[in-house]
Write a structure and sequence with these properties.
transmembrane beta strand; two-stranded antiparallel sheet; 66% strand; mainly beta; 8 strands; 0% helix
Length: 119
Amino acid sequence: YNIFSQIRTLLSKQFEIQAGLNYNKTAFELENYNLSLNQQYSYDGILSPQLSLLFKTSKERTLYFSASRGFSLPATEETLTSNGTINPDIKPENGYNFEAGGKFYFFNKKLYTEFAVYR
């Protein structure tokens, strides 16, 4: 299951903050009819926070910064051993994301462009 919550608030006419939190708990069951085997496995719950700050320099320009934690669950075929049983040593990958950028309108909003740098 997955639970997600996000809040967004204006600190002023120019500053906005967004914060989010995601909780993921994944479990699965394997029925191997060839081996007459039934296995269950679950990963520990994963919390993924996110925080963004936006600065509107004008109605046509916005600068932003975002930091978050993400994860990637293994594919089903990655969780199985060569004999068809669950490999409990395979775990989700975790990482941190940082992004800064801008969103811009030009020529009375006839042209829109964005740029971003991230790691």
